[in-house]
Amino acid sequence: MKRSNPKVVVDGEPQTWIGVNFWSRVGGPLMWRGYDAETVESELRVMRDHGMTLTRSFFYWPDFMPTPDALDETLVEHFRDFLDRHHALGMTTIPTFLVGHMSGENWDPVWRGGRDLFADVWFVARQAWYVRELTARFADHPAVVGWLLTNEIPIYDDWRKRGVGSDRTQRASEIVSWAQILIDAVRAGGGTQPVSVGEGAWGVEVTGQDNGFRIRDLSPLVDFLGPHVYRMESDVVRQHLGAAFVCELLDIDGQPVVMEEFGLTSDYASEENAAHYYRQVLHNTLLAGATGWIAWNNTDYDDLWDQAPYSHHPFEMHFGLTDAAGNPKAQAREVKAFAQVVAEVDLAHCHRPDSRIALVVSSYLEAQFPFTYPQDAAAVFDNTRQAYVAAREADLPVGVAREADGLPDDCALYIVPSVKALTAPTWRHLLELAEGGATVYCSSFVGAHGTQRGSWWPSLDETFGVIKKTRYGIVDPIVEDELRVTMTADLGTLRAGAELVFAVGGTEHSRSFLPVEAREAQVLAVDPHGNPVLLRRRVGTGSMILCTYPLEHMAAVTPGVNPEPTWRLYDALAADAGVRPDVRVADPRVLVGQIHHQDGRRFVWFVSQSDGQLEVAPEVDTGHLVGDDGPVPVLTLAPYGVTVLRLEA
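Below the sequence we write its predicted structure tokens.
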């Protein structure tokens, strides 16, 4: 399957944007009122000197549009000076129009009068006028490289729920019409640069919760998708791969993915750990297909302690890549190092190699089928993300395959992790893929709640060659706090007699297994009570492999669990299917990924998930790894470090 990796194109050239969301330390969102050009220029210079040649800039809406039919011309000229200084420094910017939300505060133009953002015809017309007029002023400026309609408008529209929790069908149609009108206003104003919405990519296709901003509806209108990712996690590896998994999920309609916002406040993390986080997010999202990075944000705001939003959200003062005096933090140095790698590999002309391993995402994440529950979609996200973590620990170049788009037919291995439900046609398709030679792995999961509790797998017995021993309405609980699995037959790299130990977790419903008896299937592994855990049914020239325990789900709900043994199972499945990666390491704390240049060069990333120094000897099937000083048979990685080598014949 093809793993998408398109670039934003400007003037016919592919882009790899590396930049920062920008408010000056003099004024923050109110910077345009008392515009300090010299301070702005010094701030831009620091960014440029640390590899950031792009900013995302903001028209603070209440100030730029003081009345329904006028712009503040003084502020317009301040913005023009801002653009001129970008151009003089060889930098570009993406202006953002409707900035009514920022950093924990919502601001309305004084004349809004409570009108609906999307459905009030007069108010939408005023927004379109504003967008068109500002675009017309700056569309020809060489510093403008793109446009964004808004900043996190789901929060501006409904700050408590981001629009989630009510019937969004009508709202979704209003939102896509509103977006079309505003994008048309950009084009009417002469803006030919790439445009996107700036809503955060929090649509149902990623979150499982429908806020009306459906990515599938908006994608045909825009030129890139821009996730905003600030995750809170209970596991370091899940945290480091969280944004990467979001990027994988955004492989929709072949749109470029730009990390429009990411970062952290120094009030939540030490400088050392902040640097580790930046390094991990940057490199892991690159390997997941992102082609642009705009950090939040350029500076700290200690002098704005008595100004909203910083007065009531004081942690928002310290998201900066520099401190309030303009001194670079470790995060800025990480971006600089990353920018050097991007330049060295010429990422604009690179692509992700295709994959023959599909990680299946159930359509129950996004489809909003009748009489299903929010917990069902949440479990799809959590379980599949944990499977993504395990696959990355096994160095597998998985492609994320959405059931809603139809599964690809060209893979050798399909991983269906802890899934409660797929549609009936998909189950038929998976069996056909196995009959055609593929290995299809599915792990059982009854769901995290008690309504229609059970795996919605039609013809389970016939599909997997077993006889299920379940009772209606009753789960078979996992009693022990750890699951010991013993291999009873060989499976790829797992040999008979090998033991895997898994942490057990879940709710009173999901902490359960599927009791079966083998009929046509071969038992590959058992639990301490002799219950089958892994079974293989040969079909056609391929295999259907059943796991009777929700391994991915148990790991997904367990804090600090990674790496856990599911990676060994995935490595074994890949070996069995003949699709083990040609470069790998035996230590799951080192994640391996590849990027290929159009001229034939192959670059290999090694990303450590250890808080200590690691030494690893990569396994290379063909060729050898080369660094700046020659061949690298053994690699030393600093804590949470990243090394990029070339793979040569």
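The chain has 16 helices and 34 strands.
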